[in-house]
Specification:
The complex is a heterodimer of chains A (377) and B (315). Chain A is an alpha+beta fold. Chain A has two domains: 232 residues, Rossmann fold (3-Layer(aba) Sandwich), CATH 3.40.50; 122 residues, OB fold (Dihydrolipoamide Acetyltransferase, E2P) (Beta Barrel). Chain A is built from nine helices and 20 strands. In chain A, helix 6 links the parallel strand 7 and strand 8. The two termini of chain A are 26 Å apart. Chain B is mainly α. Chain B has a domain of 191 residues: Orthogonal Bundle (MetI-like fold), CATH 1.10.3720. Chain B is built from 15 helices and two strands. In chain B, strands 1-2 form a two-stranded antiparallel ribbon. In chain B, helix 4 crosses helix 15 and helix 5 packs antiparallel against helix 12. Classes of the chains: A alpha+beta (377), B mainly alpha (315).
Chain lengths: 377, 315
């Protein structure tokens, strides 16, 4: 792959020689007969903003809590900066956590909340409060230092929690749904503040979230979790463009999924027979054998719509626009093909179109062979 | 719409509501009237009766005190009231000592009830569900047997030839029985034992509300379990501590039965003085004054504590 020379510095996971900062090895956590985390291996590098993404109950929070030391693994090991964490209690780990509920001490002022960790470390009172003040300035809350948590808005509480977890300059900051309790607009603003803060301080972040947009915006890499297993680890672009399973493809963004079989494999092309689209011609892909069960995945924006059959297109199908929604920057279509399958497609409204394709029109949809992702599971 | 319809539909209710409205009453004031009436009849009225008797003089009559109103020789109505009884209380060391000793015994008992009750309440609050209900049940269970019976049971334990002394002698730890009955020690045991549930229950109610995430946050920020307890758990459970301590302190200060049964002749408590004044000396006015002073002694610190707490909540 032709990457810039500096890629290994900003993307150490692409370089096999770089040493991970956090290593999780064969980690298992069972609660009675429920396995919350099942045999997870994970390497995270210094300065990363790693997102664990999954639905509730997928084990992402349990994994985070094991890193913080609140849960003991059933088996497996966690190394932070080369040090085995097995016998290190939470109060002696080089990690700090930002809790989903923020867990601010209700009987202490904002300032005391932030200084709490420093005072426990044995920092002198005057210095602790000075550093807490600096941190509060950083999150723009210096004017509210004397307030109690219940006198703050949700967004302000979120920033106090962030300041409190960062004031000790941890090697690793764990964030459990850090933006989950904020409304949409505030969440979007805060996402970028969080990235900026992370870059300024150079602290490694692990963020747990169920919000795929949040993960895509924040993360250097995403780990998609399901039923205690990490299904795929990759950069946001990889996860979106080359998902490794139907679950990941469906979980991140919207996707059209088709079931089929490998019908022919030749050196220069491959043919897949699908129930919904009939034959699809694709460039050959390694690891596929004749007759194998596969699934096709196409993102809605990868379909091209036209009123006439596009020339030279290897794969094109005719259908009728059943529904159409104009959103502004794009339009969404639901197109019924002759086979009865409903295709979701979107068109970007980059140019002003006075005569857009609309309801009940007959249209042709086509897809570039490279945009047709073949999945084996 | 529904509220209006409901009123027009049921005519009798509308009639009642209209009449109450004429009298300046609403459904809400009716609800509050019942407890208010209860307090007025069974607390406020006796309190005023007591206050009035405390201003009278003891005489040998029935009732054994001077009337409040009297006909003067010239036929006009005069009020007979004096603060003589209160002055008497202040001057006689017996009463002063009884008050001080009652407060001391109540304070020490409250402290021990807190020291014993806090860990129990904490343990129950942290216990998983089926176990928690069983433990709570065990705290409440003693209430199902007579209080007097339980005090007698303690006498069986503490007597010179009781369970404790017999066990210690048969084990060869002591030669002669330790005097436990009729000491202050026995009174402390009795009070702490009897009122412990009143300490545990409000503490438990407070500690179950404690957010476990706060404890994790403290530990995450580098606080050892001990430091977490003193910086987070203890300050946050202060309302429970105050409530529990009040519930033990207030009945303990006026306790009569426990010192009478377990205490010795030296155990001076105001409840006993009160009893003696009423039934032995038949001096109702002095007894009433003793009761009123005790009420003031108990109520004043509570009101002060409440105002402190309110002020703290405001800031």
């Amino acid at each position: 792959m032709a990457q810039p020379a500096a890629a290994s510095e900003t993307r150490p996971w692409r370089d096999a020689a770089s040493r991970p900062f956090i290593s999780v090895r064969s980690l298992i956590k069972r609660f009675d007969d429920f396995t919350a985390v099942s045999n997870v291996d994970l390497d995270i590098y210094k300065g990363e903003l790693f997102c664990l993404l999954g639905e509730s109950g997928c084990g992402k929070s349990t994994l985070l809590r094991m890193l913080a030391g609140f849960e003991q693994p059933t088996s497996g090991a966690i190394f932070i900066d080369g040090e085995d964490m097995a016998r290190v209690p939470p109060d002696r780990r080089p990690t700090n956590m930002m809790f989903q509920s923020y867990a601010l001490f209700p009987h202490m002022s904002v300032e005391k909340n932030v200084a709490y960790g420093l005072l426990r470390e044995g920092v002198k009172k005057s210095e602790a409060y000075a550093r807490a003040g600096d941190m509060l300035r950083m999150v723009k809350l210096e004017k509210l230092a004397r307030r109690k948590p219940d006198q703050l808005s949700g967004g302000q509480r979120q920033r106090v929690a962030l300041a409190r977890s960062l004031v000790k300059k941890p090697k690793l900051l764990l964030l459990d749904e850090p933006l989950g309790a904020l409304d949409k607009k505030l969440r979007e603003e805060t996402q970028f503040e969080l990235i900026k803060l992370q870059e300024t301080l150079g602290v490694t972040f692990i963020v747990v979230t169920h919000d795929q947009d949040e993960a895509m915006t924040l993360a250097t890499r995403i780990g998609v979790m399901k039923d205690g297993v990490i299904e795929q680890i990759g950069e946001p672009r990889e996860i979106y463009e080359t998902p490794n399973s139907r679950f990941v493809a469906d979980f991140i963004g919207t996707v059209n999924l088709f079931t089929g079989k490998v019908a022919a494999v030749a050196p220069d092309m491959m043919r897949i027979e699908t129930a919904e689209l009939g034959d699809v011609r694709l460039p050959p892909q390694t690891g596929l054998t004749y007759g194998q069960q596969v699934w096709g995945a196409v993102r809605p924006e990868r379909f091209a719509l036209s009123r006439t059959r596009p020339e030279g297109a290897a794969n094109a199908w005719e259908g009728v626009v059943e529904e159409m929604g104009y959103i502004g920057h794009m339009s969404q279509y639901r197109i019924r093909l002759a086979s009865g399958v409903l295709i979701r497609a979107t068109q970007s409204n980059r140019l002003r179109d006075e005569d857009p394709i609309s309801w009940d029109e007959k249209v042709w949809i086509s897809v570039q062979p490279a945009a047709f992702r073949v999945l084996t599971r | 719409m529904s509220a209006g319809n409901a009123l027009t539909r049921s005519a009798p209710w509308r009639g009642t509501a209209w009449m109450m409205g004429k009298l300046g009453l609403s459904g809400r004031s009716l609800v509050i009237a019942i407890p208010m009436l209860w307090l007025a009849v069974f607390f406020l009225a006796p309190f005023f009766v007591l206050g009035r008797i405390s201003l009278a003089e003891a005489i040998i009559a029935r009732p054994p005190y001077t009337p409040f109103f009297d006909r003067a020789p010239d036929g006009s109505l005069e009020i007979l009231a004096s603060f003589e009884n209160y002055r008497f209380l202040l001057e006689d060391a017996l009463y002063r000592n009884a008050y001080l000793s009652s407060i001391r015994i109540a304070l020490v008992s409250t402290l021990f009830a807190l020291l014993i009750g806090y860990p129990i309440a904490y343990y129950i609050a942290r216990a998983p569900e089926p176990k928690r209900s069983v433990l709570l049940m065990m705290v409440i269970l003693p209430f199902w047997t007579s209080f007097l019976l339980r005090v007698y049971a303690w006498m069986g334990f503490l007597r010179s030839n009781g369970v404790i002394n017999n066990t210690l002698i048969s084990l060869g730890i002591i030669d002669s029985p330790i005097q436990m009955m009729q000491t202050d020690f026995a009174v402390y045991i009795g009070i702490v034992y009897t009122y412990l549930p009143f300490m545990i229950l409000p503490l438990y109610a407070n500690l179950t509300k404690l957010d476990g995430a706060l404890l994790e946050a403290a530990s995450d920020l580098g606080a050892s379990p001990m430091v977490t307890f003193f910086t987070v758990t203890l300050p946050l459970s202060l309302p429970g501590i105050v409530a529990g301590s009040m519930l033990v302190f207030i009945p303990a200060i006026g306790e009569y039965v426990i010192p009478a049964l377990l205490g010795g002749p030296d155990t001076l408590m105001i409840g006993r003085v009160l009893w003696d004044e009423f039934f032995s000396s038949r001096d109702w006015p002095v007894a009433s004054a003793v009761a009123i002073v005790m009420l003031v002694l108990v109520v004043a610190p509570i009101m002060w504590l409440q105002s402190v707490q309110n002020r703290r909540e405001e800031t």
